[in-house]
Input
Amino acid sequence: GNSVTQMEGPVTLSEEAFLTINCTYTATGYPSLFWYVQYPGEGLQLLLKATKADDKGSNKGFEATYRKETTSFHLEKGSVQVSDSAVYFCALGDVSGSRLTFGEGTQLTVNP
Amino acid sequence: GAGVSQTPSNKVTEKGKYVELRCDPISGHTALYWYRQSLGQGPEFLIYFQGTGAADDSGLPNDRFFAVRPEGSVSTLKIQRTERGDSAVYLCASSPQGAAYGYTFGSGTRLTVV
Output
């Protein structure tokens, strides 16, 4: 079945540091890939997505590239801010359209 | 509405009781999903509706869990004979096109079974 593996957290960075959160997946076919973010006290929000191999999703300075050869969708940001502190979830959308499979989440804390 | 609305936001119930959790999706979204998120974990799929029918209920953990969407809009997740292990945040999401394009999630209902 489908599965998503995220790098273990928590991750603590200083403001303006470079961020990478690793995500790899196992799936049949050609799934869509997503990053969701959950800010403290708020619901899950879609951060970015990619629907086919080599697509790059981007939003709010975050980027992730759909790499089919390495089955990866790593999240990157060149310069994090304190306001980026949140839990980040990598997710895979199956080709039938019925469900998302989530990773366990990575807690990011950015200190001033 | 402007977003996915879930009520109540918090529910505390005694073990063995029956609970209903409500989800009001974004107007016009035909696909509706229920997920369960335990502390420190990612959301886990429960059930998916396309219109009024449950297109995929394979994530429901057992027959104590049931969900309906009688008019293709509001959905209710029903849990019978609650157990302490049912304690979690129950998330609802809706989408105009299905999982491949991403969803909009509600803020969830935090269920605590004591």
Remarks:
- Chain A touches chain B through 27 residues (CB under 8 Å).
- The two ends of chain A are 41 Å apart (CA to CA).
- Chain A has a mean pLDDT of 93.
